[in-house]
Amino acid sequence: MSKIFVDACLGKETPYTPVWMMRQAGRYLPEYMEVRAAAGNFLNLCHDPEKAAEVTIQPLDIVGVDAAILFSDILVIPDEMGMDLSFVKGEGPKFSDPLVSQEDVDRLIGGEEAASKLTYVYETIELLRKQLDERGDEKALIGFTGAPWTLATYMIEGQGTKTYNICKKMMYSNPELLHNILAKVTEVVKLYMEKQIQAGVDVVQIFDSWAAAIEPGKYDEFSWKYMVEIAEYLKEKYPHIPVIMFPKGIPAFLDKVYGNFDVFGVDWSTPMALAKEKLGDKYVLQGNMEPCRLYSKEATTECIKVIQETMGGKRHIFNLGHGILPDVPVENAKHFVSECQRISAKK
C-alpha cells in the first residue's frame, strides 16, 4: 500500500502535501502526560515498548498527522555506549562522566555491541509496525537519530549547553580527539539506523539540533560529513528507505549541502524560498513554519499559505521549523495539520 508521506519523500506526486510535526508525541498532549506519569519518568517511558508505541500513535489519532515518529530520545545512544545518563527535573539530561580524554573514548562501547543493546527501541518499532499494519491506514513510521555532532556535544559537555565552549575548545585545541569521538558515535549510529529499518520504519531522519553552534567553515568537517556518511551507508543498503537530514540553523551553509539523501529539513530561520532556490532541484524540502505561530490560528494559516505558494505543492513536506512547544493548545496543532492538508489539496 502506497504511503503518501513516503511518496512525498521520494518526490512523487501526492493528492496533497503531507504534514507531521517534530516533537508531535509530547508534552502538549494531555494523553501523553498520562502515559508518562504512569511510566514514572522519561527514561522509563523510552525503555517501555508498549507505552512508547502508545505515545507514538497518539498524534495520528488526536492531531491527524500523516506520519508517526518513533517515540524515543537521541541520548539512548551514548547511554548504551556506557555513559551514565539521567534526566534531572527542570534541568534536562545529564551525564555524570563527560568525555575529556582518549582514555574516556576508549572505554566507550562501540559498533555492533552498542547498537545491539538498544533492543527496547527495536521492540517499540516492531510493535508499531504491527499496530499500523493492522489499522490498515497509510500512515508512515519515521525512525530517527541525533547527528554525531549533536550527540557529542552532550557527551563532552555532560549536559545541554548554550555556549558549547567545552566542545569548541576541543574542536580548536584537540581536533583529533573530537574526530575520534565523532567517528565512534557515527559507527554506532549507522548500525542503530540500520536496525531501525530492519525492525520496520518507513523513513529515517537525522537531527542535527546543534548545527548552528559550528562556524560555517568548520561545519562540514565536524558534522555534515559524518551525517552524509550515515545517510550514504543507509541509501546503499536500503535505497527504497527515504533519509531526511535536518541541520538546524545553517542558512549560510545551503550552498555547500551535498550527499545521497532524499529530504532536507528547513528550519524556521531559513527562508523557504532561499532553500528552494539552493536545494529544491536536488532534494525534497521539509518545513518550515515558525513553531510559535501555533499560538495563533490566523498566523498559522497565513504561514501555510505562503509556504504553499512558495513550494507550489511540489517536492515538499509540511512541518514546523523545529519542535512543537509544550504549551501549544491541542486545537491549534489540529488546525495546523488540517489547514496544511486543505490548502495543499490538489483541486
UniProtKB/TrEMBL annotation:
GO terms for cellular component: cytosol. It catalyses: uroporphyrinogen III + 4 H(+) = coproporphyrinogen III + 4 CO2. It is found in: Cytoplasm. Pfam families: URO-D. The keyword Lyase applies. Signal peptide: none annotated. The record marks 73 as: Transition state stabilizer. GO terms for biological process: protoporphyrinogen IX biosynthetic process from glutamate. Substrate binds at residues 23-27, 73, 154, 209, 322. CDD domains: URO-D. Keywords: Cytoplasm, Decarboxylase, Lyase, Porphyrin biosynthesis. It comes from the Bacteria. Residues 18-27, 142-158 form the Uroporphyrinogen decarboxylase (URO-D) domain. Its main location: cytoplasm. Its EC number is 4.1.1.37. Catalyzes the decarboxylation of four acetate groups of uroporphyrinogen-III to yield coproporphyrinogen-III. Homodimer. Belongs to the uroporphyrinogen decarboxylase family. NCBIfam families: hemE. This is Uroporphyrinogen decarboxylase. The gene is hemE.
